[in-house]
Amino acid sequence: MEIGFIANAFREKSILITGSTGFLAKILVEKVLRVQPKVKKLYLLVRATDSQSAAQRVQNEVIEQELFHVLREKHGKEFGTFIWEKISPIPGDIIHENLGIEDAGLRELLWKDINMIINVAATTNFYVRYDVALNVNVLGPKHVMKFAKSCSKLEVLLHVSTAYVTRDKPGLLLEKALSMEETLKDNLFFDIDTEIELVERRKKELQAGKPTEDVEKMAMKELGIERARHFGWPNTYVFTKAMAEMLLGQLRGNLPLVIARPTIITSTWRDPIPGWIEGIRDTDSVMDVIPGDMVINAMIAMVVAHSNQNAEFIYHISSSVRNPVNYEVLERSGYSYVAKHPRIGKDGKEIRMFKVPVFKTLDSFHAYLFLRHQLPLEMLRVVNFILCHLFSKKYNELRSKYKIVMRLADLYAPYCFLKGRFDDINLERLRMETRKHGDSHMFDFDPKNIDWDAYFHNIHIPGVIRKAIK
C-alpha cells in the first residue's frame, strides 16, 4: 500500500464534505486547506435554503472560528480571497435524495468533478427521536452512497461512524465489518425497512390521538432507546450508526469504502491550535478518548491509502490499547488546574471548588446516588404525605431532576464503564506506512505520543472551560 506524500495526494482534487459546520468537519477543512493550498475545491454541503444562506452559514460557523487563526495569519489580507477560491458551499441535506441539491446543473457539475467524499454528517445525540436518527444516520448515508455512485471520477468514500457500534465485552473489540441484519444479541436479527415502517406506524398511532409536540417527541425518543436495547445497542445513536455501516457495506458494489470509527472525541491536541473544542459532552476504569486533530489526521491518511481500492476498510481511531488513560488522571488534572486557576465570582470572591467523586464501577455509582439522592428524596415523599402535601412543589422539582440525572447516567454508562478495549491493528499498519513515507509528524495519529496528564491539565480542561465561559 503506497501512501506517498499525503498532502500531495490532495493536489488538484475536489472533495465533497457533509456535516461541514460540525466539529470534526471544521478541523478537516482547515487541515486540508493548510497542508495543501493547491487542493482544487472543497464542496461543503450545508443545510440552507439557498446558496447565499449556505455561504453565510459557512462564513459564520466555519471560517470565522478561532480554528482558522493559523490560516488567517498565513494568508494575511489574501485570506478571504484564498478561502472563497477553494470553498464552495452547497445548500442541501443528506436526508433527501440527491442530497437535497435541487439545481440539476450543479448536480451534474459535482458528479463530473468530485474525487473524494467524506461523510461526517450525523445526529450525535444519544437520546434523539428515533425518526430523526433514522433519517439522518441511516437514510442519509444511503443517499450519500447513491450520490457517490454517480460521481464518474470518485476515488473513495469515507464514512465517519463510531467505535461503539461493536459489542462491548472484556478483551479486544475488533475492527471488523458488521453483517447486514446482525445484532449484538445472539440469535436475534432485524430488518432496517421494518424499523422504518415501525416508526411511521407508531407516528400515525400517536397523531391519531392528537398529542402535544412534547408528547410525540418523548414517545419517539423512548421508541429509539427501546428498539436499540432490544437488539443490544446502548442507545439510538449507536444503533442507527450500526445500521448505516450495514447499508453502506451492502450497497457499495465496487466503490472504495472506508469506515472510520472514532471513540470519544476530545479537544485538539496541538493542530492547528491546542484545546479547540465545540460542544461539551462531558477509577481504575479506562476511558477511550482521542483528540479531534488526531481523528482528522487518521481520516486523511485513510482516504489517501485507499483511493481506488475496490474494497471496504474498517478502522478504530482509539487509545485504549496503545495508550490507555483512566478517570483518575482526568480527576487529578481537573482538580490541579482549578486549584491553580481559581474561578472568581461576580462578587469578586474566589468560587470554592470541591473534588468530584470518581466511581470505579456502575454499581458504586448507583449506590452513591441511592444514598445521597434517592433515599433523601424518598424520605421527603413520606414527610410530604404526612404533612398533607405541604412540600409537593419541592418534591416534584427534585424528583424531576433526579429522573433526568438517572436517564443521563443510563445513556452514558456504556462509555464511562467500557468493558473491552478497541483493537486498532488496522490503524497501526496505516501508522507504519505514514512513518515510512515521512508523514507521521504532519499527520500524527498515534496516541502513544500523548502525555495524558499534560494534555488534560494544559490543553483539554482549559479548552473546555473557555468554551463553557463563552
TrEMBL record:
SUPFAM superfamilies: NAD(P)-binding Rossmann-fold domains (SSF51735). GO terms for molecular function: alcohol-forming long-chain fatty acyl-CoA reductase activity; alcohol-forming very long-chain fatty acyl-CoA reductase activity. Pfam families: NAD_binding_4, Sterile. Keywords: Lipid biosynthesis, Lipid metabolism, NADP, Oxidoreductase. GO terms for biological process: long-chain fatty-acyl-CoA metabolic process; suberin biosynthetic process. Residues 17-281 form the Thioester reductase (TE) domain. Its EC number is 1.2.1.84. It catalyses: a long-chain fatty acyl-CoA + 2 NADPH + 2 H(+) = a long-chain primary fatty alcohol + 2 NADP(+) + CoA. Residues 373-466 form the Fatty acyl-CoA reductase C-terminal domain. Catalyzes the reduction of fatty acyl-CoA to fatty alcohols. Belongs to the fatty acyl-CoA reductase family. This is Fatty acyl-CoA reductase. It comes from Vanilla planifolia.
